[in-house]
Amino acid sequence: MVKHSKAKKALKGLGARYGIKLRKQYSKVHFTLKEKRTCPECGSQNFGRDAVGIWSCKKCSYKVAGTAYDIKL
What we know:
Elements: H1 20-34, E1 47-51, E2 54-57, E3 63-65
């Protein structure tokens, strides 16, 4: 019997296309972009990306500029 791991490192939908190096880079960026973040002002979990480099909180409307896929506060 095969044991399945709980943490997935690969994305579905890409298949065997584009090469392993690009798939790994894409999955790293994707998981960095989609992880949960806390708002530096109110502390809620509703802090996310609005556009490239613009991050905002849906609860307190706090906006900050950062990098494209991650925020460094």
